[in-house]
Amino acid sequence: MGRGYRLHTASAYTTSACVRAPRGHRDLPRPATRPPGLHAVATSAARTPGEPWARTRPPLWLLAARGRLVCHSHRDASREKVQQCPVWRISIHIAKAISEDDLCLSGLIGSAFSLLQFFSAPLTGAASDCLGRRPVMLLCLTGMAISYAVWAASRSFKAFLASRVIGGISKGNVSLSTAIVADLGSPPTRSQGMAVIGVAFSLAFTVGPMLGAFLSVEMVPWISLLFAVSDMLFIFCFLPETLPQEKRAPSVTLGFHAAANLLSPLALLRFAAVTHHQDPPAEDRLRSLRRLGLVYFLYLFLFSGLEYTLSFLVHQRFQFSSWWPRGLGAHPPPPSLQQGKMFFFIGLTMATIQGTYARRISPGKEVAAVKQAMLLLVPAFLFIGWGHSLPMLGLGLLLYSFAAAVVVPGLSTLVSSYGSPGQKGTIMGILRSLGALGRALGPMVAASVFWLAGARVCFTVCAGLFLLPFFLLRNLRHPAQTFKEE
């Protein structure tokens, strides 16, 4: 005992005093035990022995918003902290090699793509009203091909982000497709055309993720580029011009000026570009058009938010997963395809409903069909949010798929019945912009509610809010009936 150590008898210390409370790598007490959520499951699965414990994370959008300040203030410490946190890499699906500046921006990629569509869709529609559908469609597809080429050749996160920006600006081909269908004179043909567009989306929604799962990471952008070039060649060879010269808008400058006013969400909801046209619709028809635009925005705002959080819910409650990042944990579990099977079931159901039921909805019955589908979404999301068994989840997904297959084609058919032939591109572009705005805002709001209040609160509140667009559709007559009265 030459160093002066003093021994104490065992009776001087109690048993509880000898047991130290669990502490983290910064010698701070760990939080109290809570029911395991998605972050807890991911942390326990990905943590290896000796690796520091990850702290509880706020919502991803909040991290992305404040991340740049953290990166610039604590650049070296931030790099070390990010590399030690497997939960962050699991949540946003990126590798450790990405720099911290790119990491701060990655949480905004999904919403930025929809916001770019919000800005570009009305301008694309206005240009097609004057120049024709075919040349503007080819221009959009060329932009999409360029975006995939930049993605395939990219070797940095910033180059990938640039490809997403180009793709978002060029994404007017969807609204142009609906405008081409709207040019068809016969209402039954127009309704069937909107249903066919819905079937195409459902089939792509089903086959696309499966194809991407089988391809390597390096091959995905090249295959996308091949499809984009093939689509461009097909349109160039086989698509005729659907808007005759005598029915086009007199000046593209007038259309751009009117569409530029629609960069305000309030002006979008008011369909201001249509009122500034040489042949504006009647006041009652304009009110109906504005109500349909509000219904479309509210529906996609709620639907896209719950669709975004659906993957989190099934992972948290049923341990569904679709991938496992390499290098996380000594013995990673084999990847399961439950989420892939779930989305395959959703896409197949939507394609079946759109190919059998939706395309056979007779003209004048679209409002009733959309209202019925809106009502089905209430029990659908209640079953999904509260169900703890696979049969309950399957029933909710079945109702969810049926409603999703009817609402968007039905609303698109209704909106395409408004306006003169020279206005339909602008009107469908406005509708697409409203949808893009809803898809940009919905996931951020729903994800925040999901992580702060839980899955049950998120799905219950949003399911109840679907009654709002349902009540907005009450007493709304079909535009053909209003036109006959005029």
Automatic annotation (TrEMBL):
Gene3D superfamilies registered for this protein in UniProt: MFS general substrate transporter like domains
Entry keyword set: Membrane, Transmembrane, Transmembrane helix, Transport
Main location: membrane
Membrane topology recorded in Swiss-Prot or TrEMBL: Multi-pass membrane protein
Membrane-spanning segments: 103-123, 135-154, 194-214, 220-239, 294-314, 373-391, 397-418, 453-473
Subcellular location field: Membrane
Ranges where the Major facilitator superfamily (MFS) profile domain occurs: 60-481
Gene Ontology MF terms in the entry: transmembrane transporter activity
Keyword Transport in record: yes
Matching InterPro entries: MFS, MFS_dom, MFS_trans_sf, Tet-R_TetA/multi-R_MdtG-like
KW Repressor (keyword) present: no
GO CC entries: brush border membrane
Region of interest (Disordered), residue spans: 22-51
PANTHER family for the chain: MAJOR FACILITATOR SUPERFAMILY DOMAIN-CONTAINING PROTEIN 10 (PTHR23504)
Family named by the database record: Belongs to the major facilitator superfamily.
Protein name as it appears in the record: Major facilitator superfamily domain-containing protein 10 isoform X2
Native organism: Cricetulus griseus
